[in-house]
Amino acid sequence: MTKIRFNYRTALLTISIIVSSNASAFQILPRISDVDRQLTSVGSNSLLDGAGQWIIGTFVPMLKHPVHEAITLNALGCAVPLGKESDCITTETVLKHQTLLYGVRWPDDPPFALNRTSPPRILGCNPTVTLRSTAQPKCWQGLFSDAEKSAPQRLAANPEKPAFGPGSYLLYRSHFGDLQFFHSMAARDGEPAWETMQRMRMWARFLWGIAIKEIPTDEYIRLLDIEQLGQYFPGDMTAINLLATGIVAVRKNLDEVAMGVLLHMVQDSFSQAHTGRSTETGVQCKDIPRFPQPGKISQFYSYAGQIGSQHDREDTFKALSLQTLQTQPSVVDASRVFLTLWQEHVSWEHAEKYFDCVFALEDPSVEAGPGPYSR
Ligand SMILES: [Zn+2]
Fold first, then answer.
1. Which stretches of the chain are DSSP H helices?
2. What integer pLDDT is reported at residue 337 of this predicted model?
3. Residue 189: domain span
4. Cα(148)–Cα(136) distance, rounded to whole angstroms?
5. Residue 70 within a domain
6. How close is the Cα of 10 to the center of ligand 1, in Å?
7. Which of 49-63, 316-330, 355-369 is modeled with the greatest confidence?
8. Number of domains in the chain
């Protein structure tokens, strides 16, 4: 009996040491915001949520490797040798650019409200707390796995339609459904590249308008005259709801959030798990020749047919280093140009010239596929 209790305690101690050492290894980025901390403390099971936060930070690669944050901080002027972009992530720089980085993270982890009348039947989901990986990690992971499992079945049943659309949770739509353009990806295999681009352009125009404070953030998106955007966000959805549900602190700087969200799409388009890109040629952008042109896009990929672990391998610091060491203009350079244009407060018509240059297609009719990481 004593022995058993001893072993139990030893086991607990061992677990806590593993947890704390791993937590310190991965918590370079203060990803648990004060808001999340407060929400966790009012959640139904704060102890499990704390452990869950470690689970999320350790096993969800895009949160474990804050690659987007490193690219953005580098583009903002952090001086490190090529290939050492991850060194840009320090508590000080992250805190300094917190709102922009919240936006950069947003497409991977957009906060949203759970359905209160019919909450998801997943352990750890509290419908009174805004869903975000750091606020309800177990629930987040449960929903993500559910989306990952059901997306291929839905696509098999109806290959012409994205697996998820309006009415589904933002997490499902953004990673596996109609909003994959947040990540420079097609909504389904077989989608022609011009169609993916059309959505990305619509999204960029909307985000740019918010970033330069020309599009109101408190008007229903369906009433804004931005192509088909209203179909994606019907009902009483405003930019405030979309970009900052439950996160009041960032609302006064929604321009920074929007810029971060736009940078995320730009950055993903340089990941070999998201698009195929040709080698850069050294030519300058045709309509905005003060900037060099990145390699053209040869194909967009869609996530449903990919092997998740292989996709994630491309979203790591190693893949980023390989890119910045071997490519110019790199993902960091392209991010820096958008930041420069934003600081210059240019109109969308002007910024669009660089958009067209970064997202130039080799052949608009090429259909999307799973890319090199197919199942
Ligand atoms: Zn992404």
1. 2-26, 34-42, 46-59, 61-64, 67-75, 91-96, 98-105, 137-157, 170-176, 193-211, 229-232, 239-244, 254-268, 308-314, 317-326, 331-343, 348-358
2. 98
3. 31-373
4. 18
5. yes
6. 40
7. 355-369
8. 1
Flag whether 11 is in a domain: no
Query: Residue 32: pLDDT above 80?
Result: no
For residue 16, being part of any structural domain is answered with no
Q: Contact, 281 vs 298, CB < 8 A? A: no
- In this structure, of 16-20, 191-195, 253-257, the range with the lowest mean pLDDT score is 16-20
Residue 288 lies in a domain: yes
183 Cα: distance to centroid of ligand 1 (angstroms): 4
**pLDDT, tens only, 147-202:** 989 998 998 999 889 999 999 999 999 999 999 999 999 999 899 999 999 999 99
Using the mean position of ligand 1's atoms as its centre, give its distance from the Cα of residue 358 in Å: 17
How many A from CA of 158 to the centre of ligand 1? 25
What is the Å distance from ligand 1's center to 84 Cα? 21
- How far, in Å, from the CA of 176 to the mean position of ligand 1? 11
> 238 C-alpha to center of ligand 1: Å?
22
Q: Kindly give the distance from the C-alpha atom of residue 338 to the centroid of ligand 1, in angstroms, as a whole number.
A: 17
Q: What is the whole-number distance in angstroms between the Cα of residue 5 and the centre of ligand 1?
A: 46
- Is the confidence at residue 50, as pLDDT, over 70? no
For the chain, the residue count is 375
pLDDT value, residue 89: 86
For residue 9, how far is its CA from the centre of ligand 1 (angstroms)? 41
Task: Return the percentage of the chain with pLDDT > 70, whole number.
Answer: 80
Report phi then psi at 270, rounded to 5. -100, 0
What is the Å distance from ligand 1's center to 185 Cα?
9
